[in-house]
Amino acid sequence: MDTDPRIDLTERDAWLIALRTPGLGNLRIATLHEHFGNLHAALDASRGALRAAGLPDAVCAELARSGRDLIRADLAWLDAAPDRHVLTLADPDYPPLLRRLDDAPPVLFVEGDLNALWRAQIAMVGSRNASRSGSGIAGDFARHFARLGIVVTSGLAEGIDGAAHAACLEAGGATVAVCGTGLDRVYPDRHRELAHRIRTQGALVSEFPIGTPPLPEHFPRRNRIIAGLALGTLVVEASMKSGSLITARLAAECGRDVLAIPGSIHDPRARGCHHLIRNGATLVTEASDVIEALQPIGHELGDALRARLATQAAPPSLACTPDIANGRLLEAIGFAPTDFDSLVTATGLTAGAISSMLMSLELDGHVADLGGGRYQRLAR
Questions:
Q1: In angstroms, what CA-CA distances link 377 with 58, 299, 330, 334, 358?
Q2: What is the CATH code of the structural domain delimited by 295-377?
Q3: Separation of alpha carbons 259 and 278, rounded Å
Q4: What residues have CB less than 8 Å from 157, skipping those under 6 apart?
Q5: Domain boundaries, the chain
Q6: What is the pLDDT of residue 313?
Q7: SS3 letters across 25-83
């Protein structure tokens, strides 16, 4: 007797199967989840029920044939290391700002620290053929953000992306790389070592299943995730044909701030930035300009994080409402300089959670960052 390929499928497996089913796509997956309440129920549904949910007959037939064999590579990748994860739109740990996108990826493959996706992020993008000056500026800004506990998010490409990732890591910060391939591959190949460092000090992220090659059409899709994860997008250096302008447009379309660093009027690699500034992007000359521009949405991320902490399973001594979580952190900081490690010990919260909350408290004027990983509560 043949074994039913859907026996013992988990809800996560159902999302992975849906992701790989030809003709389904992101919007239809989201529609199925909303219609049936979970994707496991959608896989078990009759063809008539699937048609009632809006699926064409051809896609219904594909879904009926789908089973565990379709996702063996994904499951093998997941099982190979403890820092490999799959997040779906149904997961409470799915990044809150990314969830706001109309076409948010239904599944995210993550390798590294999941908490990095909940920390305050700034997207840094720019030319692959970066100038020495552009790479240096990207590095200076990334190091500054790292010292503030802000995650630098980019696309692992050569040029500005690579410079931003590397400088953030060198400053001891966390960085997120959004990839245009499956996470079993690194593109470009010369960034293999950089990708390894990012995985150990941040996270690699992709919406593409394991085994997906670096096809040209994947990178514009990847750009919307870069923009969607971040509070705002900073364009360091870009020509008029740069893919960075796509990321900037996508950031604006999802309600995020777009910021740009001006360059020489004689350098074609600066014309894209000048174009953005003429069309409303915030002109940036120092990192503090970026922090000031991103205050409003930074507060929203802090609210989402506090709500998440309030619903997480925790010992009774740590269970708290969002307001109590903030109060506990403020109490731990006190009015004397306090180092970051002491805050982790005193509150029992993760480093990523504390970093995001500290940024929110700093933007609200409750806390001062003294540098060197030390913080002080301000009298109000």
A1: 61, 18, 7, 5, 10
A2: 1.10.10.10
A3: 11
A4: 128, 188
A5: 11-72, 96-287, 295-377
A6: 40
A7: HHHHHHHHHHHHCCHHHHHHCCHHHHHHCCCCHHHHHHHHHCCHHHHHHHHHHHHCCCC
Q: What angle is formed at CA 59 by the lines to CA 226 and CA 4, rounded to 5 degrees?
A: 100
User: Distance from first CA to last CA of the chain, Å, rounded?
Assistant: 73
C-alpha to C-alpha distance for 91 and 93, rounded to whole angstroms = 5
At position 117, the amino acid (one-letter code) is L
Q: What 3-state class would DSSP assign to 184? A: coil
Indicate whether 192 pLDDT > 50: yes
Q: pLDDT for 144-180, tens place per residue?
A: 999 888 899 999 999 999 999 999 999 999 999 999 9
Taking phi over 0 as left and psi of -120 to 50 as alpha, with beta for the rest, 256 belongs to: beta
Burial class (CB in 10 A: 0-12, 13-18, 19+), 95: buried
Question: How far is 163 from 346, CA to CA, in rounded Å?
Answer: 35
What CATH code would you report for 11-72?
Answer: 1.10.150
Cα separation of 364 and 358, whole Å? 10
Place of tokens 């777009």: 258
Longest dimension (CA), the chain: 73
| 31 CB-contact burial (10 Å; exposed 0-12 / middle 13-18 / buried 19+) | middle
Residue range 257-278, pLDDT digits in tens: 999 999 999 999 999 999 999 9
Query: Dihedral through CA 323, CA 227, CA 287, CA 302, nearest 10?
Result: 0
Domains 96-287 and 295-377 in one fold: no
In three-state form (DSSP H/G/I as H, E/B as E, the rest C), the secondary structure along 221-241 is HHHHHHHHHCCEEEECCCCCC
Q: Rounded CA gap, 149 and 206, in Å?
A: 23
Cis bond upstream, residue 315 (ω within 30): no
CATH class of this structure's domain 96-287: alpha beta
**pLDDT at res. 181:** 98
pLDDT band at 352 (very low <50, low <70, confident <90, very high): low
Question: pLDDT tens across 276-329, in order?
Answer: 999 999 999 998 888 888 776 666 666 665 566 555 543 333 334 445 566 778
pLDDT of residue 93 exceeding 70, the answer is yes
Q: Which of 303, 327, 329, 140 is nearest to 237 (CA)?
A: 140
